Amino acid sequence: MKPGLANAIHALQRDLVENHPNDAVALLERLPPAEIAQVLSGHPNSVTLPVWERLSPDIGMRAIDALPEDRVAEVLGHMGPSRAAAFLSMRDAEARERYLGKLTAPNADELRAILAYPADSAGALMDPRVLLLRTDTTVREALARIRALHRRGVRMLFVADAENRLEGQVDIQDVATATATTQLAEIKRPVRAVVTAVAPREEVVEILDRYRLTDLPVVDAEERLIGVVRYRNLMAAAEDEATVAMQTMVGVSKDERALSKVSFAVRKRLPWLHINLATAFLAAAVVGLFEDTIAKYTALAILLPVVAGQSGNTGAQALAVTMRGLALREIRSRHWPRVVFKEMSTGFWNGIAVAATTSLGVWIWSGSVGLAGVIGVSMILSMVIAGIFGAAIPLVLNAVGQDPAQSSSIVLTTVTDIAGFFSFLGIATLFSGLL
């Protein structure tokens, strides 16, 4: 090619990319990824960045794969974080880390934070490898894109505008029955429902059930499509995570299965059983401190499990709510004063209500006003303590980099037992003259 003609083509390309990015995207997305990379790498990143950010993630990521090494970090590092994350989501974890390693530490950390959506959120449950098509895309081109993505079980295609905001959806059956030259604009339908990436699992399930959807599109804060939650994946994730939480909270390894070897189960469970035994002796020691009081007032031994049981249940409620907040990133360690105060206040007011009922029942049963008063005061005190520790334990574990679910119930049970025993027997000892 003559130098003059090459320069003219280069100038025209630059004008198109710089001044008409939407038109440039419409043309580039019909080219092979290697050619897209060649065209865009021939111009400064400041000129091509708006085009990169408008490309469909599956096409854009394949074009980045074809870029020269020195341009990869430049493109990903200057793109908007949400768009860069959408591109990287098209690759597996190993490939993502390889690309993140090319970026500066602050940029890489920000993208990792975006890619690591809260557990039980739509972002964590979604499939990010979603096709984002244009209204003027033909059925032939759409099928070629599906084949290039190497995905099976595609039921729904999504159509977006130049800013990658959803415009409609196309059922794969409509694609199969349309002619090759039919544009998606002719067969697209309105999107029935969308969900944000940080929406909790409960909201996702509710929307899927309400609209009877198999695929629910997920959008970011700017309403751009970033993935799809598939009903079958949601159900599988819910089952797996529920069983893992059940195991870890009671000291069982999340890796253990029903048919795991006995030696593996023993090795994983035995340390926590010894810890539980030690804490049980600690609670028993507290009871032993008040042996004389119990021997003198046998009714205390009868009522002791009542206080401990209410304390344990209060702590378990606070623990569950706090762990869910941490999992959904509704709270962080810096929120501990608010969370602890909230659970302490909840324990106090619930304690008053439960104490009133308990005191009335004990008074009717024993006829002792003093015993009814002692159990009422100890009930309030133990439930307040349980609320505080139920919130504090997962927050402390999270602050020191540990899994908040890991055997937290064992620690909490110890605290609530000691709080219940000590408050009830301690107050009874102090006011023994009223019993």
Quick tags:
three-stranded mixed sheet; mainly alpha; 6% strand; MgtE N-terminal fold; 3 domains; CBS-domain; Tetracycline Repressor, domain 2; elongated
Q: In the residues, how many domains can be counted?
A: 3
CATH superfamily of the largest domain: SLC41 divalent cation transporters, integral membrane domain
Segments where pLDDT lies below 50 for 5+ residues?
Answer: none
- The outline comes out as elongated
CATH class of the largest domain: Mainly Alpha
Strand order of the largest sheet: 1-2-3
Largest sheet: 3 strands, mixed
Nearest-integer average pLDDT: 81
Helix content, binned percent: 55-70%
How many strands in all? 6
Distance between the termini: 106 Å
- In quaternary terms, these chains amount to single chain
How many helices? The count is 21
Fold and architecture overview:
There is one protein chain. By secondary structure, this protein is mainly alpha-helical. The chain folds into 3 domains: 3-116, Alpha Horseshoe (MgtE N-terminal fold), CATH 1.25.60; 132-239, Roll (CBS-domain), CATH 3.10.580; 262-434, Tetracycline Repressor, domain 2 (Orthogonal Bundle), CATH 1.10.357. It has 21 helices and 6 strands. α11 (139-149) links the parallel β1 (132-133) and β2 (156-160). α16 packs parallel to α21 and α18 (299-327) packs antiparallel against α19 (336-366). It is elongated, with a radius of gyration of 31 Å. The model has no long low-confidence stretch (mean pLDDT 81).
Architecture blueprint of SSEs:
Layout: H1 3-19, H2 21-28, H3 33-41, H4 45-54, H5 57-65, H6 69-78, H7 81-88, H8 93-100, H9 105-115, H10 122-125, E1 132-133, H11 139-149, E2 156-160, E3 166-171, H12 172-177, H13 184-187, E4 195-196, H14 201-211, E5 215-219, E6 225-230, H15 231-248, H16 262-288, H17 291-296, H18 299-327, H19 336-366, H20 369-399, H21 408-430
Parallel strand pairs: 1-2, 4-5
Antiparallel strand pairs: 2-3, 5-6
Helix pairs in contact: 1-2, 2-4, 3-5, 5-7, 7-9, 16-21, 18-19, 18-20, 18-21, 19-20, 20-21
